[in-house]
Structures are given as structure tokens and as C-alpha cells.
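Re: the request from the purification team.
They wanted to know what the chain is likely to look like in 3D before they choose a buffer screen. I agreed to run a prediction and write the result into the notebook, where they can find it.
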Amino acid sequence: MSAKKATVVRLKGKSAGDCVDCGQCVAVCPIGIDIREGPNFACINCGLCVDACDGVMSKLGRPRGLIDYETWNNIERGHRKEQPVNRLVGPKTIGLTAACVGLAAAITVATKTTAVLSVQHDRDPVAVKLSDGSLRNGYTVKLLNKSSASHSFTLSVGGVDAKLAIVGIRNASPVVVGPETSEALRVTLTGSDDAQGDVVFTACDETGATVLTAKDRFVDH
């Protein structure tokens, strides 16, 4: 009922609610729910009805909270004319926080990488035919060491019958990558003219615990 009608009812000694039927809570609801009829499963908890009602109550000089987020225990306390109990930290809060922290830690451990291997094939030319009839493909191989310690990586290839050579490093010796740094290597693969196919580059650190792979192509033109 309106504020004036509610005042008249109260003067007669009867009970009247604080709702003035302004309809603002319904007007602002994006779902079109009439919250005055009680909780609705379609509610998206946007809180617009709460803000609208609080604004109207403030203009009428009445306390806020006619529409509010509340626990069922506090609703029951309100029916008994008892003060609500609001706890910032409770068993559910502690449990949910612990679960979230545990999940975040598990995801971090599962997805964390200490090193990354990437390969880029030469574009011009993509392949060179040597005087003996064999083919040579060139690549830029990058090793990124994310850890706080230096690591030595041994590079190898599979997938095609081709000889690996790292320019500037004799006999494809281990490549030392400093902590939190990267190394770009000039790599060539030399094979027969029928050695086309996918090439799998593998980098293994000195412990054998970290094995990195990256795929590219060996082409003849």
C-alpha cells in the first residue's frame, strides 16, 4: 500500500508493511521478476531491486533492507524479533577459501613449465639442394629457460632421416641456457631428396626430467 495508507493503518493500531508499492523493484529487474512475491529461481542476483528499494526507503526516511541478501537463519531471527548475526568468517567461508586455494595450487603445478622449445622454418629459401643431391632445411630453434638455474639442453630430431647440425656448436653439443633467459640457435637438417615429412625436435635437459618437443616440416622445395 502507499505510504499515506500505511500511515492511516498504523494510526488505527494495525500492522502495515514498509512496501509502498512503487513498483521500482519490478521496473529495474532485467528478468521481470516481482520480488515482492518472494524468492524466484530465475533471479540472477544482480541486486538492482535492492538498490531501487533502498533508494525509495531513503527518500521516505525509512531504514534500508526491505529487499536484501540475507541468510535463512537471519530471516528466522527477524520473525522472532531478534537481531541478525553477520559473521565475516564462518565454516563455509573457510572451507570455500581452502578449496579455492587448493584448486589454484593444483592448476599452477599442473600447468607450470620450466622451459619452452619453439621452432621456425626458414622461409626464403625453404630448402637448398646441395651438389651431392641431398637437401638442406634451415630452422631457428629457440630455447627459453624459465627456471632460476642454468640448464644444458641436448637437441635431437626424429620423424625423418636427416642429419642435425647446430651452427657454431660442434657435434651438436649440449646448449647451455642461463636462468630466465633464452637462446636462439641456427639449425640445419640435411637429408635425401625423399626425406619429406614432419620433423619432431626434442630438447632434453641434463637431468632428463625436462623433455621439450616441437614439430615442423622437412620439405624439398
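For the purification team: The chain has two domains: 3-84, 115-218.
Please add any questions underneath this entry.
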